[in-house]
Write a structure and sequence with these properties.
By secondary structure, the protein is mainly α. It has a single domain (23-106), classed as Serine Threonine Protein Phosphatase 5, Tetratricopeptide repeat, CATH 1.25.40. 62% of the residues lie in helices and 0% in strands. The chain contains four helices and no strands. The chain has helices at residues 32-53, 57-70, 74-86, 90-106. Helix 2 packs antiparallel against helix 3 (74-86). The longest helix has 22 residues, at 32-53.
Length: 107
């Protein structure tokens, strides 16, 4: 789902290899832990999407928060924004809107 960049040399790893990736193809840095964190973040993000689609804003917001803590992605902030809106939690919606806007500008 999301790409992994080596923390040592910053080389982006090929997405097709992510499922079996254990070392950076350039510097041989160990990437298993980073891949596991990325997989967990993607899993909670997908769970949040499903909860949002089911109309469970509070559950979707919680999953988005967990995913955000694991890996800060623009999509996760956007999910948290929508989940907060669905929950009528406008203070959180405002927060996540600003976060999503800020992180999207960096890309």
């Amino acid at each position: 789902m999301w790409e992994i960049s080596c923390p040592a040399c910053r080389k982006e790893q090929a997405s097709a290899r992510l499922a079996t990736l254990s070392q950076c193809s350039r510097c041989q840095c160990e990437l298993d832990s980073l891949r596991e964190i990325t997989d967990a973040a993607a899993g909670t993000y997908i769970a949040g999407q499903q909860l949002l689609a089911a109309g469970n804003g509070a559950g979707a917001l919680e999953q988005a928060r967990i995913s955000w803590e694991l890996r800060r992605q623009p999509e996760t902030a956007q999910l948290a924004f929508l989940a907060a809106l669905l929950s009528a939690d406008y203070e959180n919606a405002d927060h996540w809107y600003k976060v999503a806007e800020k992180i999207s500008r960096k890309d």
